[in-house]
Specification:
mainly beta; 13% helix; eight-stranded antiparallel beta barrel; disordered N terminus; 45% strand
Amino acid sequence: MRHLLFILLPLAIAACAAPPRGQAPAQPTELEAPATGAEVWQVTGSSLEIRVYRDGPMQKLGHDHLITSDHIAGEVELREPLATSRFALRLPLDSLMVDDAAARSRAGGAFDAPVPEKDREATRRNMLGERLLDAARQEEILLTADSITGGPRSYVAQVRVSLAGQEHVLAVPFELTIEGERLIARVDLRLTHADLGLVPFSVALGALRVRDDFAVGITVEARRRT
């Protein structure tokens, strides 16, 4: 049962939607020509962490899972006022790491114990497969800001998320700090499967299942493009 859980849990991790998938959208990976007076900042560093939790009467047979990457790339276009700014980011799916031992050790708590290598590889293989993130169809997750509200430090972006030939729009709160030539944006939020039109995965009539909510943490650092 434990091995089965490792193979199937990526349904929740990958946030894979149930409706039929279409063609991968032809979205630009860079912003269009910036508005007059706008400043374009290039992403130079990032970290992504997704925490997915086990649930159900048989949850002791499974593990909480940690998905990480430091390969977010793209651009941020700063305008005045800041709430009119835009961004276009991309995350290569092959950069996603499943239950990296060092990352789990840093996270501690429920993630402190390592996960066997063979189970990590099985989870990642299924996560990127046709029934989940479908990396063969669309190699990157694309994140573009439809609109931004708030300020002067706390904002909410309506983010268009494109993956596996589908799109979802999410309200994403973030903190923005600009210090000289350094821009840092931080996201810390919880999503539910229902936010993306999903049903949490379960086995054994729900005795072993993925908890409906999962945590997402993102930090993006950018420098002014010259």
